[in-house]
Specification:
Layout (H helix, E strand, L loop, with lengths): L9 H6 L3 H10 L11 H8 L2 H9 L3 H12 L6 H9 L10 H20 L3 E2 L6 E2 L1 H7 L15 H4 L5 H10 L8 H13 L1 H9 L3 H10 L5 E3 L6 H8 L4 E2 L4 E3 L2 H7 L17 E4 L2 H25 L15 H11 L3 H13 L3 E3 L7 E3 L1 H7 L3 H14 L29 H13 L5 E3 L1 H11 L15 H16 L2 E2 L2 E2 L1 H8 L2 H8 L11 E3 L3 E4 L5 H10 L1 E4 L4 E4 L2 H9 L4 H11 L6 H13 L4 E3 L3 E4 L3 H9 L8 E5 L2 E4 L3 H10 L5 E2 L34 H19 L21 H14 L3 E6 L5 E12 L2 E6 L4 E6 L3 E6 L7
Parallel strand pairs: 16-20
Antiparallel strand pairs: 1-2, 3-5, 4-5, 6-9, 7-8, 10-11, 12-13, 13-15, 14-15, 16-17, 17-19, 18-19, 21-22, 21-25, 22-23, 23-24
Helix pairs in contact: 2-32, 5-7, 5-8, 10-11, 13-14, 16-18, 16-20, 17-18, 20-25, 21-23, 22-23, 24-25, 27-29
Length: about 800
């Protein structure tokens, strides 16, 4: 439906839009959809609320925001030429503004204006552009504050409380004719400040020091403090109206005068074009992919190593939630990484659903059942699971070690690490990297500058080089975390990451697989009691070797060291000496060194020679000499042992502590059950109950899909039809107010509905549902019986049945009305 006259309100402007344009508004501002507005008027009202307008302004880019700010300081309404002039200036360039910049502004302004119109922040034709009132209140200057442009209030606003006598003094000092009408006096002063020639002549008579004062105020803030006896330059400016009093000690440079001094520009530096992301290095794409793949494999192995270390039950959970500083340090030491990096790996495992609390009374962190499924996947699929979880997570590990708003420390896995902006910033940073040529590493500062241009209001600071705002910090963390995770290699986006962003995990895994070495089924045993794994190992081999030896160094090749303690660990897990010899012979490409065989046999010979059970605890051994040796050792004093029999000792400590104490003394005892059987300790037995990965905290309402948008637009259109349809009033009834429910008696309602059912005509009704909510509807009655009317509801676009007693009244539609 086209409009023959310009819209007078935002509602009229929205009503003139087509369905696609309305859907675009709801897509850009999804907060308007909850709940779905009943009609266009409700939509316009909701679009003008302060919370919704602030949210819309926060999603504008720098130039669209500058366009809105320029409209806020222009007269309402403003023609397109005035808006363009506020952005480009009046031609009196001071050296900071060039012709190419003016051309860029002229090219970019229609797009910025289209964005503001689409989001219902600006409405009206080009000759009468209007900024919605709430946005003007937020962005426009007032006598109490300056606008984001640095401009102060107008002459009329600044002189609203000034006495007529003072106005006459200013007119006389400025050489203007006296007038007793304050409105005329203000208009004369405003005309003077906007007249280029007369204003130039006035400033030519100003002292040089006065011009210096104006230079300090012209780009904002426009307010200054004065003493009761101001200096001559300030007094000259105040006498001529170039500084107007706001209070007894504060003056302001009026907007019209500031615009003259700015050569007509609302902004010192308009930014119509986004800053380019610049490169710091051009690398070979294959080298980038290789480096990223190596880091991806290391990331997978690091997460697996972390969770293996917590297999038997991880660290305790703080009362307030999260890991303690001591436990984070211990984890960092075990992973051989800095604490901040350890926090990243812990949070990544948690975001991927591989780690959670066990829910016990003494609550601890432990791997989830999903970890076992994840560990069985090929390395490339394990990586895509981690990378996908990282992209969507609102958990922000970079905050660990900082403080919350109340000054409390933020801990890893704690409850205060969710930041809803994190996923959007991560995706945007990677999208900027994807726009560069393959192998190109970006300059981080230019990435931050681009993000600030795209969302200037979302951070706390927009100063160049200042990274204190949250979006900039998340962007820097994203660049660092991308390198740790193998999303980037040597600073450039990897090919498999481009596939992950464009097509999904399956394609990314397919591209990553050839770059990851095939798992090996062998190691190289050396005479110094070490084993070298020249690459990633098959999972059964890696699990067995991690139980039999300690990792000494990691990298391209992993070095394992065999010690008495590590061999005892394998024996505790149920392996025999023969099993260990067979395992090493089967998986070593080199002969098993004799020292290693001797080590295994020696530990196995002593393993289980002592038996530990529960008395409080006891020690039994068939060799009396061994028990005599233990009792004679001074280190056994803390174990509080006493002899029960020639082959048995009792202790006053629990079996686990006794077991650990004797091992520290150099013995290799084995625990036994009440039946005398050796207890086997198997790693990896502790799991949490089934847990789901943490749900990201959304940033505002979710983006609606096409189906929801289409249904919402139809409902709004139908509701608007019901609210604005032309109807007839009963001859004896007073005319209904626009938007008011019709009122008729029960008999009149029944008769009118029955007549409409016979003729097939449509009616306008008022209806109150069971919850007491009133609405207006346009229906076409089909059947009336049993106190109910069955009709096609044009508002809901479906057939419905209504109780007659809930219909407040009916009215026929006008002959030329369409439902």
């Amino acid at each position: 439906m086209g409009m023959t006259t310009p819209p007078r309100t935002l509602a009229e402007a929205l009503r003139a839009r087509d369905d696609e344009s309305l859907a675009g508004l709801l897509r850009a501002r999804p907060d308007l959809l909850n709940p779905v507005p009943g009609d266009i008027t409700q939509l316009a009202t909701r679009a003008g609320t302060r919370a919704s307008v602030v949210r819309a302004l926060e999603h504008l880019d720098r130039f669209a925001l500058q366009t809105a700010e320029a409209l806020a300081v222009a007269a309402d309404p403003a023609p397109y030429e005035t808006l363009l002039g506020l952005l480009t200036g009046d031609g009196r360039d001071d050296g900071e503004h060039h012709d190419d910049a003016g051309a860029a502004i002229a090219d970019a302004l229609p797009g910025a204006l289209a964005t503001l119109r689409e989001q219902a922040l600006v409405w009206g034709e080009d000759d009468r552009l209007r900024l919605v009132r709430t946005a003007r209140e937020i962005l426009a200057p007032s006598p109490q504050h300056a606008s984001p442009t640095g401009l102060g209030p107008t002459v009329a606003e600044a002189t609203s409380g000034m006495s007529p006598g003072r106005l006459q003094e200013i007119l006389a000092a400025a050489g203007l004719p006296a007038t007793h009408d304050p409105v005329s006096a203000v208009a004369a002063l405003s005309t003077l400040f906007t007249d280029r020639a007369r204003m130039g002549a006035l400033l030519d008579t100003a002292p040089a020091e006065a011009l210096s004062v104006l230079d300090r105020l012209v780009w904002g803030p426009p307010y200054g403090e004065v003493t009761p006896n101001p200096t001559p330059p300030v007094k000259w400016l105040r006498d001529h109206g170039l500084l107007l009093p706001v209070s007894t000690r504060t003056v302001v440079l009026p907007r019209e005068a500031a615009l003259h001094l700015r050569a007509g520009r609302a902004h010192r530096v308009p930014e119509p074009r986004p800053p380019a992301v610049e490169a710091v290095a051009e690398r070979d794409p294959q080298a980038v992919d290789g480096a990223a793949a190596g880091q991806a494999l290391l990331a997978v192995n690091t997460v697996e190593e972390l969770l293996k270390g917590w297999n038997g039950g991880g660290p305790a959970i703080l009362r307030a939630g999260g890991l303690s500083v001591r436990e984070l340090k211990r984890t960092a030491t075990a992973l051989e990484v800095p604490e901040q990096v350890a926090a990243f790996w812990v949070e990544l495992a948690y975001a991927a659903g591989l780690l959670a609390s066990d829910g016990e009374a003494d609550e601890r962190y432990a791997p989830t059942p999903a970890y076992d499924d994840w560990a069985e996947l090929p390395a490339q699929e394990r990586w895509t699971a981690l990378a996908t979880a990282w992209l969507a997570a609102t958990r922000t590990p970079g905050l660990v070690g900082g403080q919350d708003a109340k000054g409390r420390a933020l801990s890893a896995l704690g409850p205060e690490l969710d930041r809803s902006a994190a996923p959007e910033v991560r995706h945007r940073v990677l999208a900027l990297l994807a726009d560069l040529a393959p192998g190109t590493a970006p300059d981080p500062e230019t990435v931050l500058a681009r993000l600030r241009w795209e969302r200037p209001l979302r951070g706390a600071s927009v100063s160049p080089g200042d990274t204190t705002d949250l979006r900039s910090r998340i962007a820097l963390w994203t660049l660092n975390e991308s390198e740790l995770l193998g999303v980037t290699g040597r600073g450039a986006l990897a090919t498999h990451t481009r596939a992950l962003l464009d097509t999904g995990p399956a394609e990314a895994a397919a591209l990553l697989a050839p770059l990851i070495p095939e798992p090996l089924d062998h190691v190289l045993l050396q005479a110094d009691l070490t084993a070298v794994a020249p690459g990633p190992l098959e999972r059964p081999l890696a699990d067995m070797l991690s139980a039999l030896a300690d990792i000494e160094s990691k990298g391209g090749a992993t070095v394992y060291r065999f010690t008495p303690g590590s061999v005892r660990r394998a024996l505790d897990a149920g392996q025999s000496a023969a099993d260990l010899h067979a395992f090493l012979a089967a998986h070593s490409r080199t002969p098993v060194p004799q020292p290693l065989s001797y080590l295994i046999d020696d530990v196995a010979r002593r393993h289980g020679h002592l038996r530990i059970g529960a008395a409080s605890s006891y020690v039994r051994c068939d060799d009396e000499a061994v028990l005599n040796e233990i009792l004679a050792d001074k280190r056994s004093v803390t174990l509080r042992l006493r002899r029960l029999a020639p082959t048995a000792l009792a202790a006053q400590i629990d079996p686990a502590s006794l077991l650990e104490g004797l091992r520290e003394m150099g013995y290799a005892p084995a625990a036994e059950s009440a039946e005398g059987d050796v207890l086997i300790t198997r790693a990896g037995a502790r799991r949490t109950p089934p847990r789901t990965a943490p749900v990201p905290v959304p940033e505002g309402p979710p983006l609606p899909d096409a189906t929801l948008l289409g249904a919402a637009v139809r409902a709004i259109r139908a509701g608007d039809t019901a609210a604005t349809v032309v109807r007839k009033d009963a001859p004896e009834a007073p005319a209904t107010e626009p938007g008011a429910l019709p009122r008729t008696t029960s008999a009149e309602t029944l008769a009118t509905v029955q007549a409409a059912a016979m003729t097939g005509s449509a009616l306008w009704i008022g209806y109150v549902n069971a919850d007491g909510a009133a609405s207006q509807r346009v229906i076409a009655p089909v059947r009336v019986e049993g106190g109910f009317v069955t009709a096609y509801d044009h508002t809901a676009d479906e057939v419905r049945t209504y109780p007659l007693h809930r219909i407040t009244g009916v009215a026929e539609l006008a002959d030329d009305a369409t439902a």
